[in-house]
Amino acid sequence: MEKVYKVLKNAGASNITVGVLLIVIGVTLGIINIISGASLLRNRRNILF
User: Residue 45 is inside which H or E element, if any?
Assistant: First the structure.
């Protein structure tokens, strides 16, 4: 029975770690998108189609 608890503990810890990493990556990519969008808006007169 102890083996099951150890496996579940490791799985839970890895799931929490992956969740935290995904949140950090998502926030970072969101900030990068906002910055690049702001630079596009700032330079919109120089964009030719």
Answer: none
